[in-house]
Prior knowledge:
The chain has 1 helix and no strands. By secondary structure, the chain is mainly alpha-helical.
Amino acid sequence: MKGKRQHLLLYFVLGMMTGLVTAAIFHIIYAWLFH
């Protein structure tokens, strides 16, 4: 059970990081296109 919880936390952190990177990329593209 403890290992499963750690896996969920890892996936949550990875998901958040991926979301932040995606948001940053979109923000850069948007700023580049409409500056």
